[in-house]
Amino acid sequence: MEFFESQNPDRVCGVGSKNVSVMYGANCAPAQVGMLMKYRTINAALTRLEKKPLFALAFAALWVMLITWIVAWFQLGGVGLIDETEPLFAEAARQMTVTGDWITPYFNGETRFDKPPLVYWLMAIAYKTVGVNEWSVRFPSALAITGLTAIGFYTLHRFGFPRPLNPQILDAEEGQMAIPSYPTPDSGQMAIRPYSPVVWSALIGSAAIALNPQTFLWARTGVSDMLLNGCMGVALLAFFCGYAQPDRPKIQDRWYLAFYIFSALAVLTKGPVGIVLPGLVIIAFSIYMGNVRVLLREMRLIPGGVIFLLITLPWYILVTLFNGQTYIDSFFGYHNIERFTSVVNNHSAPWYFYFLVVPIAFLPWSAHLPVAMARLRFWRVQDWRQQPRSRQLGMFAVIWFAVIFGFFTIAVTKLPSYTIPLLPAAGILVGLFWSDQLTQPRTSKATWISHIANILLFVVLAFAAWYSPNWLGDDPEMPNLADRIRQSNVMITSAIVWGMAAVTGIILLLRRQANWLWSVNLIGLAAFILIGLLPAGMIVDAERHLPLRQLSETIVEIQQPNEPIVMVGFSKPSIVFYTQRPVIFLPEINQVQRDLRRIANRSDEAESILILGRDVKLREAELPEDRYQTIDQASVYQLVRMPREVAQTLGTEG
Predict the structure, then answer these.
(1) Residue 44: its pLDDT value, please?
(2) Which residues of the chain, if any, have pLDDT below 70?
(3) Cβ–Cβ under 8 Å, residues 232 and 148
(4) For the chain, what is the domain count?
(5) 527 and 427, same structural domain?
């Protein structure tokens, strides 16, 4: 079967079948010879490592730990909770530990039916284990990306063959790629070494799965998105690990069982989408491969469905029994059906929204994502159907990516975070692409264009980092942010990182060693995170969130018995988490006086009211400055105390 075009000996250096050697100098430029010498050294080391399972396992574990440490665990609790969504999850989980009610989530005294309980349960377990803090809030997200990266590495190491079977370049009996070494001085010939490309797929693919901007942001945020991505991604990879081993039925059954378990956990994380999306991916993949009936028998739908329901149904039944139609209307109606069929919370966007989001979310790997897909020639269905199942990971990733991209493109409500579940598929695709580039050195015109686009992205990122303080504008809650960023030079450092990446990329391109550009992506992005994004995040935290934490500490110290806490002109749920007290939100400025009067009239046991707000909002509410006491001030926020009898007269004078 001739699945890809025959190799052009004028463009390929030292690549052939296992029994062929290529004379030094016949097709090889000096730079290419040097590149092949590097291959020999690295491949020899990896081959020795592969022959020692314990060392190989330790190496894989260290690689996954290093990547996920950069992406998630390093300084995980280093900044405060990010308003507006993260504190909602954090406080709902804390309420579970306080009330002992692990069925109905509550925030600020009201039920919160936005999401199912798994993320709350994991946060609550972390609270019980290491304490109520930011690290515990983000623990589920960090755990999810760690597990997903690990199973991604395993799957790629087992089945990450960069291209389908092709007799010209593959030893079908051994399943290994022919890799040349440098010429021996005595013979002047290229000796051919067999080496499996799946190690490169695993190393690069697992890094791309975790190390991208969107995953970095959500792996450090205590909400349900990354946990959903982890459960859904593990479920789909578990499915493929079972699907790819039809000759090992016991192993296959175990992997399919893992698919049902993690799909159920995805449903307990974010609802029906946790099974709908994996189900659509598997259905589309089985239709493409023409083995729907066979796959249905293999997956044992009835026992698998029973296990799935045993995990998911108990909580859904209990929460419905306890809360009735209110829960059904809120969760299934508003947060699931309406999000797909109509615009929710003003989150509308044009149909091409995700065509813009995904390239940014997957920087800088996205430069090679189109060619990584196109090179698999997904339109040649019959050729793919003739492949062994173990060689179909690339097509599975293409369908995975396309189904989720299409699903959320059709959905009316659009958010950037909805694309997170397709990023593992993108990581697999670029991992396979770079493995192919490393083990079969050659460069097509499309690949050259992708290399150039990759380097141009470095230039754009360098400019964006250098100029970014000018884009910050005048945020009323962070009036000094732009100056703080400039003084720190953190963005200048980031610009230098990307500038060095661009220069390195150009050198590799000129030396015809652009197939090492993946390492520049990896190192550049890791450096940008460690010396750019994390320090910048701490500055933003100090400007935006630290003042609210400081005022929360003041509230805890000075609040009198039964004294209400009121937030004027805005809603910052982090105050509820940090004070661990109920807070009354009054976002409508023109109604503040009336609402304060109502609060005072029903607070018979309180002598005063604590009022928190930006100084400008307090003035806009026309509160009499001579009739309240300023307790504390942090940045643009003021904490004041108004006597109850004063509040009772608001809006009645004149």
Answers:
(1) 61
(2) 1-53, 166-196, 330-348, 441-442, 652-654
(3) no
(4) 3
(5) no
